[in-house]
Amino acid sequence: MKKIGLFYSFNTNKTAKNAEKIKKAFGTSAEVESVNVEEVDEEIFLAYDNLILGVPTWFDGELPNYWDEFMPAVEDLKLKGKTVALFGLGDQVGYPENFVDAIGLLAIALEERGAKVIGLTSPEGYKYEKSRALRDGKFLGLALDIENQAGLSNERIEAWVEQLKKEFK
């Protein structure tokens, strides 16, 4: 398996903690390098063929500032040959109308530039009204709700990483 770039903000507590759990779950089966998305540029982003992106949903379905600021650069990239898995944090009780929307926002932007999105997961076990991260009955990545379902996060991460080990090439 090719080296994986794990992109997330090092300055977030919850996303960073879950990113480290994802990295640890890979064990020795893959080389996973953590990359601070707040310091990323196009060259660093393009240096990886396999990427995992961590993105919490802010407010009413928005990308966090650090991803939003990088999006103009993403819009100019050609991502054919890149394989991307997404994980995101959301609050299905407090924000049921846009649960983990940021996963969907990033997935769509990356697919439009040629990237292949993997790591789709079932929405079973979640209670929300709407999500831009949902397509054909699947989330476009791993949805984590540590506000309301923290006890399920480790199990979900372990299962997702096992799935990624098969889907990443």
TrEMBL record:
Q: Does the keyword Electron transport apply?
A: yes
Q: Does the keyword Disulfide bond feature in the UniProt annotation?
A: no
Leader sequence range is none
Assigned keywords, A-Z? Electron transport, Flavoprotein, FMN, Transport
Enumerate the Pfam families for this protein. Answer: Flavodoxin_1
Query: Taking every annotated instance into account, which residue ranges of this chain make up the domain Flavodoxin-like?
Result: 4-165
Needed cofactors, names only, are: FMN
Q: Name one GO molecular function term.
A: electron transfer activity
Q: Which domain of life is it from?
A: Bacteria
Instruction: State the similarity comment.
Output: Belongs to the flavodoxin family.
Per the entry, what this protein does is: Low-potential electron donor to a number of redox enzymes.
- Please give the name of this protein: Flavodoxin
